Structures
1.
Amino acid sequence: MQDFLTTEIARAGLAVIQALKARGYEAFFVGGCVRDYLLDIPVNDLDIATSALPEEVLAIFPHSHHVGIAFGVVLVTHGQYCFDVATFREEGEYDDCRHPQWVKFTSARQDVLRRDFTINGLLFDPTAQVGNQLIDYVEGRLDLDNRVIRTIGDPDRRFNEDALRLLRAIRFAVTKDFQLDKQTYDSICKNAHLIAKISVERIASELNKILLSPRRRYGIELLMQTGLMDYIMPEVTALCGCDQSPEHHPEGDVYIHTCIMLDLLNDGSDKPTLSLIWATLLHDIAKPLCKSVEENGRIRFFGHEALGAEVAETILKRLKYPNSLIDDVVYLVKNHMRLMNVQNVRDSKFLKWMAHPLWKEELELTRVDCASSNGNLENYHFACEREKSSPVIKQLPTPILNGRDLIHLGLQPGPEFKTILEKAYDAQLDGLVEIKDEAIDFLQLRH
Ligand code: ATP
Ligand code: MG
């Protein structure tokens, strides 16, 4: 373990604290940085809390400016680092489950008591003697050691003040590998409906952190168990209890199948991208809508990829994701079954699939989909081998035949141009024609 206090960021932070203390103010490292330091997780974001008022902080540090005078936060630059230096504050009653009505400058203890979870409420004085550096008003150290997320004070009150904390609790449990304290957990279940008051942008930002964590499955399970999923993505709740044919899906219903896939993403050779993770979560999202049962009892989900792409788009638009992510997820969901056909398609098709920027993700989605169901990876392996024996294609070749050529041949421009040119291009990719004249003969375009 590298001692946090010897890192450059901690030494820069120490210099800021020393400057504040030299003028008679109290000053501490606070919140996430203290938590992560004690957990032996690299700290890349350091917050400082002080008794100095914002204008006093501004006067001490030449390279500083305030970022919200009402909240008492001043940004102080020291060398290459920039720290939030916040005056100890207390917050009044909350409006709209998110914003305090007033803020008042106060003591270190009161400042800790307004924070969300005990593990985020630790103060650390790097200038004190070793053994006396930690100031713990909320038994945060004990919860850190026991790996427990617990609100500071009554959970019902704290979640009603600010409903974003419902999701933050789950996010910290997932990313730090902690358990939720029983009372905190029960309160999340009771107050889950309050999440509807939080902006979708903030919800999406927490979801991203949960999904990018290797323990994303635990996150989805917590969202389901607490009832939060009902308010964020009821479409995912509907996967629970959506039965599938046991011979194809011995693992269980669509929800279980999806959860296993979320875990299997960790075995890939690369870290999964956010688009791939979202596509995994939503790949079968339309199965409950497409379910039919045949006379022999076999369960089918005709068209679930195409409809799934539409449902995925609706969900991600609702959560105001950027169009680039939505486009990627829609593409992956729409095409998530097509590699089942990889042993039969012509080169033209395969080369087009391979040339797509999301090819690696498509392949990976197929791997986890097959591995989490009947475990038959034949098509996946076939696709990998076929890729190896195909020319390395970063960009598809320029078509040898174009619209101008058709006009030259005396054809009238019209909708059929597209079909003719597609046929010519597929023949080119399949290696059946190499030059313009061959393409013209192949399609019998000369009269
Ligand atoms: P990370 O930055 O790694 O996500 P963090 O604990 O630093 O974790 P921030 O959102 O940066 O989280 O907040 C810094 C600190 O501010 C927290 O540790 C916590 O003490 C306090 N805090 C942040 N958000 C809230 C909130 N919604 N309610 C109460 N306290 C909060
Ligand atoms: Mg932080």
Note: The CA atoms of residues 221 and 342 lie 33 Å apart.
2.
Amino acid sequence: MKNTAVVGAQFGDEGKAKITDILASKADIIIRYQGGCNAGHTVVYNNKKYKFHLVPSGILYENKICFIGAGVVIYPENLKNEIEELKKEGISEEQFKKSLKISPLAHITMPYHIDTDGAGEKSLGQNKIGTTKKGIGPTYTDKYNRKGIRVEDLFNEKSLDKKLDIILPEKNAVLEHVYGLKTYTKEEIKAKLKEYKEFLAPYVCFDWQKVLSDAKENKTILFEGAQGVLLDIDYGTYPFVTSSNPISGGAAVGGGMGAMVIQEAAGVFKAYITRVGEGPFITELTDETGDKIQTIGAEFGVTTGRKRRCGWFDGVIAKYSVLVGGISSIALTKLDVFDTFDEIKLCVAYKHKTTGEITDVYPTDVSKHSEYEPVYKTFKGWKSDISKAKTYEELPENAKIYLSYLEEYLNTKISIISVGPDREQTIFKNSI
Ligand code: GDP
Ligand code: IMO
Ligand code: MG
């Protein structure tokens, strides 16, 4: 396998974890490159459901390195819970100690980040982003404002003390005077950070330069993205985005080995689109078809339990995603969700509601999205159970027609077709 980045190509929850899990079998090191515990990744294997937020899903295999890169933000309390939950599912403590490695450069989500994420959303009222309230925006804000705490800081008491003297008064002023929230004493924060240090210590990879050098020279690398291109801080539906770069370029930064090591970017697309939280969604279905997709697709958020909004596959977004996401092949998931549908629609262009202008160029100014309506191409459903298909040839003719059109429309080959949540329910169409 080429060194591959798994990139969410829509609004997140495309089934990245399933694709990562499958490709991880052929990789030596799996690197999560951005995001935080806002992510909710599900892997189904041996009739068990594993839920991940930060831990790379490669942990399900023995003898893989699972590396949390510098581009990720870590809320230690959440990571602790995640590891505990995964231990209950049978992943041993030894497995975590052997495989899980955390970059000392990753940033820590602090308690005040969680507070201000929630309060910030509340103060936005109807204009809220609909965040996961996991402190993601505030953590990245502090990172880029050079007021963050990194994992390595926890291991340097003197420098940490100095940093807190600079950072904490400002945080407290915002907590108290902007949001009317409880402030933190330095002692409280230091005690928390001591807890974080003790918990993280077995996993922190101080010799990361050696690990990554070795990976670059001798190993097959899989980069695991979170969220999706349309939630990218630069290219997504700003401001209804997350605060990091899910695009494959993000793997170059957050992975720590530059762009040249990434030989393939598998864009994960659902056969339809879902979105959680606020923000524009041109192909959203608020009718019974939307409900049907939501029910059959079991579209509930893993992190927040929220119902996901559903709509038809948006080719305009997908084309844009292929471009800015740097996507070189398509992993299409949840095709089985359409097994009972008479017809399936695919948005091939947007029509301007007043001028009638037709475009397949994605309008980046989201305040204008309400001016457009989707132009659909309709495909006949296949009306049969495809969840047991193992090869492309076994798929019904109508499914093949849909897939061929998609490849042609996006001018990108399909590498993987997923026809169910389980590892086994996967068809390889082209090699990665
Ligand atoms: P991620 O955040 O991109 O990793 O995706 P999530 O795990 O949040 O959501 C994808 C959901 O779809 C999970 O519950 C998966 O188990 C499930 N899933 C993945 N691929 C397929 C598929 O091909 N068919 C069906 N029916 N479910 C799938
Ligand atoms: P995975 O990795 C779907 C959404 C939130 C909100 C916006 C900003 O499972 O695909 P944030 O908490 O990041 O500041 O929220 O981004 N969001 C996701 N939506 N899947 C995710 O992750 C998401 N992570 C964040 O709902 O709209
Ligand atoms: Mg998810």
Note: The mean pLDDT is 97.
